[in-house]
Design a protein that fits this description.
The complex is a heterodimer of chains A (309) and B (180).
Chain A (H helix, E strand, L loop, with lengths): L16 H17 L14 E6 L5 H12 L3 E6 L11 H9 L5 E6 L4 H8 L3 E7 L5 H15 L6 E5 L6 H12 L3 E5 L15 E2 L3 H7 L2 E4 L15 H8 L3 H6 L5 E3 L12 H4 L6 H20 L5
Parallel strand pairs in A: 1-2, 1-3, 3-4, 5-6, 5-8, 6-7, 8-9
Helix pairs in contact in A: 1-11, 2-11, 5-6, 5-11
Chain B lengths: L1 E6 L1 H19 L5 E6 L3 H14 L7 E5 L30 E9 L3 H10 L7 E10 L11 E6 L5 E6 L1 H4 L3 E6 L2
Helix pairs in contact in B: 1-2
Classes of the chains: A alpha/beta (309), B alpha/beta (180).
């Protein structure tokens, strides 16, 4: 297979295993490209990409922007804070106005679940979901799996625990789909209040005890507690959360194997991870960031390939 | 579909030795030279030449690599079949080096043009030469000519030159295939 089975990247749920294999194979080539003295290829020099960020983002936006620039695409950036959205413009109107400037691909982050899917049904451009509410964040899940594959050789058969605020996390859901598609076993760990009620129906396990979860897994993907999305108190205090679900060096040393520590960022140092863990050899957090550019280049390249001249 | 043998195994072997000798004439002990096989099919020819140079002419440690030109091609999004990338392996500095691009067939010259752009991502070579096994004359789209060539072939557009290597086709043989 040398073409994606989908026309947009809305979520991992819509992908097949072969799509992920193709994205990773292409990302391998781009990883080599971004380590050259001149880290740029001319493939997309006649493609224009709009980055529409209706929600704050630092690393995802930078990573997409860099990936687009490495592919020589022309880019326009839009952030809701400085736009007509504040004046009451609808999502479709905003996007269609941008598309009338002959944009080929839209990368969108939006606070509402389903926004990327909705847009894909109404506008004539390739849509890449850069996060929609607490639904999916497909490129993050792809780069997470890619980083596991790079570190451990393969994702198949690996045991991955996702720790923390699953309830408000789009990274968690995309990761569950991606890991299962590649044959990994997934468990969730965190306070029961931050675990969605019917999540185990997706075929994932749940372990309340952090130590037991870490003893079980090969990889621990630690999520940030998303205070900004919490309208009520989900746990008594940050201190208590850290005591029960924070990973420190002592805990890691007490486990009789070297597990891989991942984090999609931004890290709350001292809350979900202590600094000595985040900066340890077991952590592949910065590899995730580097791989993010290569994986996003692959996704953009493969979708652009479908736009015929 | 008519198929005619252009070069058999023995003829290919003789040509490979001649090309090796021509390379030695120009590049002496290869200290400042890098041989680069163009993906996907130029790498077989490159490996064969390196093998002959090392075994038959006792030239050691010849720097050689693989260059994939997929992301530099000018027909991206113009083809029916999607392009598939291959591995690039250039583990050395190319600045001020003499590079020899190696490919099996020179046809339109567009692959060579893409390779000329691609190699710039690794630095600024002193000089770039082109070695091909088959030079399809009169079919060039760009002003590109080989510095070393195995055999000149006058083939018309619907004819295809197919190079088979033992490594992937179980035989060393070059065919001229007529696709009417």
């Amino acid at each position: 297979m040398s073409e994606l089975s989908v026309n947009n990247l809305i979520g991992i749920k819509h992908l097949q295993k072969q799509d992920i294999d193709l994205i990773f194979k292409t990302a391998d080539h781009f990883k080599e490209v971004i380590n050259r003295p001149i880290k740029k290829v001319p493939s997309l020099r006649d493609i224009t990409i709009a980055n529409l960020f209706f929600e704050n983002s630092t690393r995802t936006k930078l990573s997409f922007e860099l990936a687009e620039k490495r592919l020589s695409a022309d880019i326009i950036n839009f952030s809701a804070a400085q736009s007509s959205v504040k004046k009451g413009e609808t999502l479709i109107d905003t996007t269609n106005n941008i598309l009338s400037m002959k944009v080929d691909i839209v990368v969108m982050r939006h606070p509402n679940e389903g926004a990327a899917y909705f847009l894909s049904k109404h506008v004539d451009a390739k849509i890449i979901n850069a996060g929609d509410g607490a639904h999916e964040h497909p490129t993050q899940a792809l780069l997470d799996s890619y980083s596991i594959r790079e570190k451990l050789g393969s994702v198949k058969g690996k045991k991955v625990v996702i720790i923390g605020d699953i309830l408000h996390s789009r990274v968690a859901l995309s990761n569950i789909y991606a890991l299962q598609l590649q044959g990994a076993e997934v468990k969730l760990c965190g306070p029961t209040t931050l675990i969605p009620k019917y999540i185990t129906e997706l075929g994932v396990g749940y372990e309340k005890n952090l130590i037991k979860a870490l003893e079980w897994c090969d990889v621990a993907n630690v999520l940030r507690v998303q205070h900004e999305r919490m309208d009520i108190k989900y746990f008594p205090s940050v201190r208590e959360y850290t005591q029960l679900y924070g990973i420190n060096k002592e805990i890691l040393n007490s486990i009789d194997k070297d597990i891989v520590i991942m984090h999609p960022g931004p890290i709350n140092r001292g809350v979900e991870l202590t600094s000595d863990v985040a900066d340890s050899k077991q952590a592949i957090i910065l590899n995730q960031v580097e791989n993010g550019v290569a994986v996003r280049m692959a996704v953009i390249y493969l979708l652009a390939q479908q736009i015929k001249r | 579909m008519a198929k005619k043998v252009l070069l058999n195994q023995k003829e290919i072997e003789i040509i490979l030795h001649r090309l090796s000798c021509q390379l030695i004439e120009s590049h002496k002990d290869f200290t400042n030279t890098i041989l680069i096989g163009l993906q996907p099919r130029g790498i077989f020819l490159c490996n064969r030449l390196v093998e002959i140079l090392e075994k038959e002419y006792n030239i050691k440690d010849i720097k050689h690599g693989k260059l994939d030109i997929t992301f530099y091609r000018d027909d991206f999004r113009r083809r029916d079949e999607p392009l598939e990338a291959n591995k690039t392996e250039i583990d050395f500095v190319v600045d001020n080096k003499n590079i020899v691009f190696i490919d099996d067939v020179l046809y339109s010259g567009r692959s060579t043009r893409a390779a000329l752009t691609a190699i710039q991502a690794f630095g600024r070579p002193n000089k770039i030469e082109l070695l091909v096994l088959i030079d399809r004359r009169f079919s060039r789209h760009l002003p590109i000519q080989p510095d070393y060539k195995g055999r000149k072939v006058d083939a018309i557009n619907h004819e295809q030159v197919k190079v088979n290597w033992k490594e992937n086709n179980d035989e060393d043989c070059i065919y001229l295939i007529n696709n009417p």
